[in-house]
Amino acid sequence: MTLNIATHNKIFHADEVTAVALLRLFTDDEIVVHRVDHDTEDFSPYDMVIDISKKFDGDKYFDHHQNKGGKSSAGLIWEYLGFQEDYPKISKLIKLVDDNDVGIQKAKPFEYSNLLKCFNHSKINSPEQDIQFEKAVDFSMTVLNSMAEFAESLHAAKNIIRDSFMFHDNPRILELSEFTPHWGTYVNAKETPNIKAVVWEDKEDDNWKVRIPAKRLGSFELNGKELTQDDSMKFVHSSGHFGIAKDEATMCQYLKTQNI
Asked: Quick one: DSSP state of residue 202?
């Protein structure tokens, strides 16, 4: 299904750019954008109207200037799509766009809203400006899609941790049921406290890997002893947080020598 979206021409901002990006990412429709004059009165040819029209009904018209809820057009479209709780980090980003656009909190120089502003062409009435608008939408989609994929992989990681088990019955060493780069979000949290090392089989590299987890998410302080160099290992990082063994038996013996 094709949805014809009307928004204003000339200078574009993060709110309508992000609104279009959200519709392209979170619907199955083909989104066709028409950038029309601010004084346009007839919007009957369009399925949705964003950031223009002096109307808001939450269905077709999404001109936030007629809404007192503290949301920009991006926030109104995000609310319309209904994924706020599924993607909390995206919701935080949209809140920053809203706050900047409606005058609650100005965006910092290198924040998302100001980066999108940089896509505007010096000649705002030229055909190049429409090209720049699409480039800005593509940039927004890249950011939002990355955040969405991260949220989905975090959810998968939680299930992987739940399916993991103790390495050779050692309650201090967690063996991942399969590798996830986001295991650190959940290890040494409520469900898996007091883990001193995390191991997994890397079938692609045909070896076993171990990492010493952080004491808490976002910390560089390790929750266990630093790994030491050993000739039996293929690699041990000089910081002592990561090591590689050729097989499971070597990893098991090595970790015993480390008194983990």
From this structure: E
* pLDDT per residue as tens digits for the range 70-116: 899 999 999 999 999 999 999 999 999 999 999 999 999 999 999 99
- Residue type at 206 in one-letter notation: D
> What whole-number distance in Å separates Cα of residue 218 and Cα of residue 187?
12
Q: Could you give the CA distance from residue 196 to residue 97 in angstroms, rounded to a whole number?
A: 40
Residues 46 and 140 in one domain: yes
Where is the domain boundary, 156, 178, 203? 156
Widest CA span of the chain, in angstroms?
77
- Integer Cα distance of 19 and 16 in angstroms: 5
Alpha helices in 37-195 (DSSP H): 73-81, 88-101, 112-117, 127-163
Of 135, 154, 136, 160, the closest CA to residue 89 belongs to 154
CB-based contact 101:77 (threshold 8 Å): no
Q: Are 185 and 217 in contact (CB under 8 A)?
A: yes
Burial class (CB in 10 A: 0-12, 13-18, 19+), 176: buried
SS3 259: coil
User: Which of these three, 96, 130, 156, is where a domain ends?
Assistant: 156
Q: What is the CA radius of gyration of the chain?
A: 25
Number of residues in the chain: 260
**DSSP-assigned letters across all residues of 65-103:** GG--SS--HHHHHHHHHT-TTT-HHHHHHHHHHHHHHTT
Q: Which domain holds residue 248?
A: 164-257
Number of H helices, E strands in the chain: 6, 10
174 in the same domain as 130: no
**How crowded is residue 46: how many other Cβ atoms within 10 Å of its Cβ?**
21
pLDDT for residue 192 = 74
